[in-house]
Amino acid sequence: MSIEVQNISKNYGTQKALDTIDFKINKGEIVGFLGPNGAGKSTLMKILTTYIEADNGTAIVNGFNVNTHPKEVQKSIGYLPEHNPLYLDLYVREYLTFNADVYKVDKKRIDEVIQLTGLTPEAHKKIGQLSKGYRQRVGLATALLHDPEVLILDEPTTGLDPNQLTEIRDLIKNIGKDKTVFLSTHIMQEVEAICDRVIIIKSGVIVADNKLQQMFSNENDQVIEIEFDVKIEEEFIKRLPNLKSFHNIHDMQWELIFNANEDMRSALFDFAKELDVKILSMQLKNKNLETIFREKTM
Questions:
Q1: Which of 87, 151, 192, 237 is the most buried (most CB within 10 A)?
Q2: What is the domain extent for residue 250?
Q3: Domain ABC transporter, which positions (predicted)?
Q4: pLDDT tens across 227-264, in order?
């Protein structure tokens, strides 16, 4: 077991950031950790990386307790925090050399991670001269320097352009074949492209934890996007039969999720007729991670 979290809780004053969190992650899994802002994602990642301590519970990373063996945990993880701390006055290679000395890593590893993370064209520059995307690459290269068993990545693709996104996603996916990757992101397409499993947290509590494909496996769920010619109050929407959840996209536009064997579009036509409103557009959509995320966190 690469990561094991048991009944972890953390409070900031009267605010409960984490409330008895439990999960296990095996070696070779790439797990997406999702939640709204303030849900507790970064707090848990800081606990797993020994930056802060939990108030209650136990966290084991690569076989080591984060409280009793923090140095062993630090040696076995690579961490890219949300706000990537870098020495902007150092050159890329100089910065990686400094970190290689800290980890007591052979200097040839520096060239390997530079190539691995696509830093070769910028390796001669000062970090302060780099774009935000390339600074993220420096952070990822640093996290990979000592070839850790576990990678903990908080918003790893912040600031990357579409081409860089694809490259870094492929890199993370390849790394995940023989390591454990635990990553936080707000980009749902990123999770769908990279991750095997998804954990969703809301207000410090896990509200979903499953293999990605199994999250889409409810064959009865229908997602319908509909736009009316007037704004309809939520109390009327709630009256729809077999309605599982709903989301007001914008004014007169709604995303509706039904759990039913029958096609619910006919029921929506009846609903519109009953309210004497017109349907401007209606589309049956496939359920995706963004839909599930809203369903679990709204």
A1: 151
A2: 221-297
A3: 3-228
A4: 999 999 999 999 999 999 899 998 999 999 998 888 99
